[in-house]
Amino acid sequence: MLGSSTLMAAVTALVFSRFAGRFDTRRLAGLGMAIVALGWLLVFRAPGLAVVEAGLLVAGLGGGWCFPTCTRGWPT
């Protein structure tokens, strides 16, 4: 189950790294972290395993969105 979150983060990071240089770093990192928080909120409030899996996929999406943005470096 946790593997799906990692896989989603890896795929999203590969795809999103092409677009990370075009937008504001702080906003993209904040949006990615908000998506991670939403995913983990879904996991926390899940009534069943299907919703847990969906929450982990959303959290992985946010993590993959945030990772290329954060590794690119903050503007000075």
TrEMBL record:
Keyword terms: Membrane, Transmembrane, Transmembrane helix
SUPFAM superfamilies found in the cross-reference section: MFS general substrate transporter
Bilayer-spanning residue ranges: 27-44
Annotated Major facilitator superfamily (MFS) profile domain residues: 1-76
Key word Transmembrane present: yes
Coiled-coil residue windows: none
Protein name per UniProt: Major facilitator superfamily (MFS) profile domain-containing protein
Natural source organism: Deinococcus multiflagellatus
Lineage of origin: Bacteria, Thermotogati, Deinococcota, Deinococci, Deinococcales
